[in-house]
Hints:
The radius of gyration is 37 Å and the shape is elongated. The protein is built from 31 helices and 21 strands. Helix 10 (155-175) packs antiparallel against helix 11 and helix 21 packs across helix 23 (466-479). The protein is an alpha+beta fold. Strands 1, 2, 3, 4, 5 and 6 form a 6-stranded mixed sheet that branches. Strands 12-13-17-15-16-14 form a 6-stranded mixed sheet, with no helix packed on it.
Amino acid sequence: MADYITYADLKKAVTDTGRPYDLQLLDKAYALANAAHAGQLRRSGEPYICHPLNVALLLVELGMDTESLAAALMHDVVEDTATALEDIQSQFGPDVARLVDGVTKLTKIQFSSVEEQQAENLRKMLLAMSQDVRVMIIKLCDRLHNMRTGDAWPEQKRRDKALETMEVYAPIAHRLGISNIKEELEDRSLRYLDPVGYQEIKDLLAGAGGEAFVAETSRVIQQRLAENGMENAAMKSRVKSVYGIYRKMFIQDRDFAEIYDVYAVRIILDTVAECYNALGVIHDMYHPIPNRFKDYISTPKPNGYQSLHTTVIGHEGIPFEVQIRTREMDQMAEYGVAAHWKYKAGVQGSDRLDERLAWVRQLLESQRESDDAGSLLQDIKGDLLPEEVFAFTPRGDVINLPAGATAIDFAYAIHSAVGNRMIGAKVNGRIVPIDHKVATGEIIEILTGPADKGPSRDWLKIVTTSEARNKIRNWFKKERREENIQEGREALEKEMRRNLINVPDDQWDDFMAEIARRQRLNSVEEMYAALGYGGLQLSRLMGKVKDEYAKLKAAQPKAAALSDIPIKTTKSTDGVVVEGIDNCPVKFAKCCTPLPGDEIVGFITRGFGVSIHKKSCQNVQASLANPENRGRWVPAHWEGGEQENYQATLELISMNRDGLVGDVAVALGELRVPIYAMSARAVDNGRASMSITLGISNTEHLNSVLAKLRKVRDVIQVIRI
């Protein structure tokens, strides 16, 4: 620095704010700090007192109070000079002393290499922060000024400080809602951690001419708002931070042209109603990009941020983001918890401050009953320093994932298409299982199959990131609707059978419709599909199924046992012996299509003989519960001699290819099975569905036919329906 900041500069900035600062207290604090740091120089060669003066100036810009400024001026005297904390307390009182002590403790903690013995200091710092967040705000300004003058540090120290800033201080600034400090900390850290990537983005921004674009756009919008009765609208504009663009370009592998919020126009209004009116005006002026609208006014972010966001295409064809908020929301977005001091408004400000600091108190509360001070470190890492692993693609691109992530997570972090087509993975040139846990420094190559390959449903049990899980579910949701419906139906029916839930056929549709309605789904098919692709958990659904079934059972009389039906003797008809009826015509029920080998029972119909059902048929159980029908059920069994004239219908799912029907017919011909009907049709995703009605002797014969058909090339599934 050629021109050093002086205390006169700080006093002028304080006076210019017009706020009632205690200048005598600041004079006293400066005098102590100046005397304590006398003769000390920074690495950059400037007098050391310039650093606390710059930190105090940043606090003035945030609107902090007199005590914060005094503590900032003296924040290094206890650590770096002979001044004792007791001296500060005796001269400035306990509040200023507590702030200085808190900043000093925080400075001693090396976050990048936290050891267990430091955990107690960390707990004390968090406790001080939860009681007085000004400690952290002073430290953030301290770190920001250090990063601004970081060129004077040795190369390794620059990288260490930048990493610590990126891991700890920028996330804390984000959690406290101080967006300006967060973004500058990230940008300055990135400049040291990846100077090439940083400069590339700076060059892209310089060549895009964005400043002129957003300025003209702001002018046009403000004029239109005034025409619509919003004359008091204030306009701001911004270009997205370098690190924000870096994350999307290098970490999410997107092109600069694919980033829609590089430029943003901010509209600041008086009331929430005006915010929503302005949104309508913007959508009338410009074409909104679908799925890019976010309402953070009705649903604020965890750090309290509130605003309406929409992305539109400008008349020049350039996309830009529009942020619409009230003046109070803008102050909270710019200054975060610091707005509490800048705009003190009694109880309301205090309540909002409490909300912002709730996460710190929750962290401390969870540790209160723990005897292990070191366990706090893991919680801190989970909240502010999430443990991450960094692996590389063969091209050298860095992919960062949470610890414990698998090769499948890695594939989906690269791109949805890579994950969907994944068939295997190589780590450092060697084949590994797809559930391999990614470690830092590994070079991972994802092996891919054909474009229509698609993920496996079992992957949902393997992946650890929500991004991968959502992408897998979305693929099944979009690409496999028919399969999802079938999978979901089969899974639900199987689970219902396992839980001995038998719903009568005549009540099945209404029963399932009620379950779907309780899930707020539009149809039963939609419910089956959601079960199939994993959007709806079967374990959660079964609770509602059991509730509905209990209501259904409570409304029905108790079913009679089959053994209670009077036994008569008779002769056989069509291979079936119906007890008590001679030579009566029989027909086989289509609801359960019984075959020789199945346990059966007969129902005396009105005018059509005896209908033969499997004993396990749901309709049998339902009818027995009706006293009017109990007397019409008669025991039946198969005659000893088997005949090959019982029909069974099979459904076959396979890949769609030429010659498939011929191969199936040949397989059935080798078994000498009569074919009564056959139909085939193409379904989605290159698959075919075939329905075949065959002549079957008994269940053993049926099983051999199923086994033969499953061996036909490209057949995926064969079931009896």
